[in-house]
Amino acid sequence: MVELIKDHLSYTLQGNIVHFISDEDQRPFWSKALNAYLTENHVDLRMRQRYEEQCVEMTKDAIHRRFVDFVSSVHGVKVDLASGPSGYFAPFLDSLFKEDTLIVTDACPAIISAHSSACDKSNFYVFDVDLNKELPFKDECLDIATGNLLNNLDNYALLVREVYRSLKHGGKFAVIEMFFEHGSKTYSRLKEEGRIWASFESFVEYFEKVGFTYIGGDVISTRKGKISKGDLYPLDENECWSDRTLYFQKS
Ligand SMILES: C[S@@+](CC[C@H](N)C(=O)[O-])C[C@H]1O[C@@H](n2cnc3c(N)ncnc32)[C@H](O)[C@@H]1O
Known about the structure:
Blueprint: E1 12-14, E2 17-19, H1 29-40, H2 47-57, H3 62-72, E3 77-81, H4 90-94, E4 101-106, H5 109-118, E5 124-128, E6 142-148, H6 156-166, E7 167-180, H7 185-192, H8 200-210, E8 212-224, E9 240-250
Parallel strand pairs: 2-5, 3-4, 3-6, 4-5, 6-7
Antiparallel strand pairs: 1-2, 7-9, 8-9
The structure holds S-adenosylmethionine.
């Protein structure tokens, strides 16, 4: 795995964890806030159980199965971005060949530690890394990158360019993301803020500008209004939004 890391980049190894964040002041704000919440409330992430539940959840219908099959059919080096607490990538572990490598990434210490101890496969690693900065990988060394709901990363646009740089030619990028309707109030606000995920159309357009080819995807579900009262989006209760799977290839 260390051969994937850029030359001259400093890191420390701790079991299956690779720490790229050495100074706690450098830890991204959202990961710090999440860590404080999890530790102060003594939350047990029950990660092994989450992996088991997600193996069922992620294969519950044809759309989710297509996503899992797409990722599972690519072998080599796989990286999941901002892996978070859901454990949604668990089915990728089941289809991992012993020659493959799966790297999950986050910057929240409690989540990193939970993933580290939930899986003892020797080809599974957890990177403690700030994804708002350049990725630690050498050019053209990854076979596939994946992500589930990455829109609260501060620098999604840079991340897409960094994934492109790190993927081999023909490498894949499979994401699950939520989008607002093109032309809606929420879309206009996000567009003004320069968010690449303002709408499905703007997202695909950005990926294509970077060099990816959009090779397909599905609408998972469509909803109207906020899920919970405190949600920021959509700005208007009458607006619809959808979750989608999207598949891209480095041309
Ligand atoms: C972006 S969402 C991703 C949801 C996740 N894929 C899942 O399925 O649970 C939340 C996660 O992103 C992580 N995160 C947010 N900003 C980050 C950053 N700059 N670098 C690394 N991880 C980050 C948080 O620590 C949190 O675990």
